[in-house]
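We examine the record.

___
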Amino acid sequence: MNISQKTSLVAVAWLAAGWLASAAGASTTPPAAVIQSSQNAAQKASSVAFTDLTTLNGKSEMLSGQISSSQSQESLRASGHVVLQVRLVGDTLYFTTTVASALQSILGLTTAQATAHTNQWIEIPATNKAATAIAQSLTVSALVNIYAPKASASVSMARHKVQGKTLISITGRSNPSAKTLEATTLIIAQASSLPVAGTLKATQGNATEKKRATFRAWGKPVSVTTPAGAVTLSSITGS
């Protein structure tokens, strides 16, 4: 584990525990400008590795992966098992899952088709609506923006020292809907302007969703292998 990875893991752990509450000092740069600089730095780096833990109603899922402008991959784990994987190689998306209902809801397969093709890689052309939607989520900006404050949010910002490095935390609190309260925090390395971690907490009625993410390996090459034995979506649906 390298130093930047340690910093991101420590930062998100400290934030989750509330230990980043004591700031090392205030920043004179407006939060919006810091966020914009971070978004610019992320776009320039163009690639990142990440982990994203989501907890909802006592159940947890871990999404991890690597994202770049030309190749990306993600893996979703639940209850200790990989339940879904996505790979993007050029303009072609590859998708596999152990859950038949996911194939029905995401790819529009029938019950019989979904049951027959669980645990099998499916090749989906870029022109497919589902592939387009998934590919749009496999971008650096889409990943980081989950944790950036909404435009309507009440924003606060502070600086912190973690393992000798200065981090900037930007927290936004908003009401995306009448019954939803949301708080997001993006943690940025001051030296590079790159995000290192993020948290989200959204509450709607009795339901609470929590997310914690770490970002590392910014700008590093991403290599994704085309799955062997993939079947085309058109061969399944006949269209």
Q: What stands out?
A: Residues 1-7 have pLDDT under 50 and may be disordered. Residues 3-235 form a domain with the outer membrane lipoprotein receptor (LolB), chain A fold (CATH 2.50.20.20). The helical segments are 3-17, 31-45, 100-107, 111-116, 129-137, 140-145, 233-237. Residues 3-17 form the longest helix (15 residues).
